[in-house]
Design brief:
The complex is a heterodimer of chains A (about 80) and B (about 130). By secondary structure, chain A is α+β, with helices and mostly antiparallel strands. Chain A has helices spanning about 5-15, 45-55; strands at about 20-25, 30-35, 65-75. The radius of gyration of chain A is 12 Å and the shape is globular. Chain B is globular, with a radius of gyration of 15 Å. In chain B, about 35% of the residues are buried. Classes of the chains: A alpha+beta (about 80), B alpha+beta (about 130). Chains A and B meet through helix 2 and strand 3 of A and strand 4 and helix 4 of B.
């Protein structure tokens, strides 16, 4: 079962200079909520930003990670 | 021409319906909180939309995600383009971008709408019927 720390470190490792806050939404270890801030999102649509994060987990989304609710942001000073 | 009739039918539905939501359950009986909140967002705007329940056949979800390159349900398409899932639709509702994309008026009371604030889903679907 994935943990919030594991999700956080995998997102931060995959997206350059990103910070991620991850919480377990239901306490059940499969519904997560993440806020990700990364300069990699600059100039991308929301769809493209969320895809970058979803791509970190591939087929695990919908599998072990039943749901990953996302908020993505570009840092204010980068 | 099609050796993949399900994917072909999905592509046709997206092409033929200006606003179409792929969801779990139906607008009247959503089977998942994320689908329910996305339906509520569209209803807040009084926007007409077509809805497809992906649950009856697992191949629908599989082919939809292959087509859209988007892993989760719900998925909202407007004019043939993927707009997003629940998170993006709710953000766009609050900012007024959803009304703009759908070509409808932004109501004044969106902030108070049930759909505007994503709420934490209850871990169990227990209704309080005691009070």
């Amino acid at each position: 079962m994935p943990t919030t720390d594991e999700l956080k470190s995998r997102i931060e490792a995959a997206l350059p200079d990103s910070t991620a806050e991850v919480e377990d939404w239901t306490g059940g270890g499969d519904h997560f909520r993440a806020t990700v801030v990364s300069p990699a999102f600059a100039g991308l649509s929301r769809i493209q930003q969320h895809r970058l994060v979803y791509d970190v987990f591939g087929a695990e989304i919908g599998g072990a990670i039943h749901a990953l609710s996302l908020t993505t942001k570009v840092p204010e000073h980068s | 021409m099609s050796d993949n009739p399900i994917r072909e039918a999905i592509a046709e539905a997206i092409r033929d319906n200006p606003t179409i939501l792929f969801m779990k359950g139906t607008p009247d009986a959503p089977a998942c909180g994320f689908s329910a909140r996305t339906v509520a967002a569209l209803q807040t705007l009084d926007a007409p939309f077509a809805a497809v329940d992906i649950l009856p056949d697992p191949r629908i979800r599989q082919e939809l995600s292959a087509l859209s390159n988007w892993p989760t349900i719900p998925q909202l398409f407007v004019k043939g383009e993927l707009v997003g899932g629940c998170d993006i639709v709710l953000e766009m509702l609050e900012s007024g971008e959803l009304a703009q994309a759908l070509g409808v008026e932004q109501p004044d009371d969106v902030e108070d709408g049930a759909a505007a604030a994503p709420t934490r889903p209850a871990p169990l679907g227990i209704e309080n019927r005691l009070s």
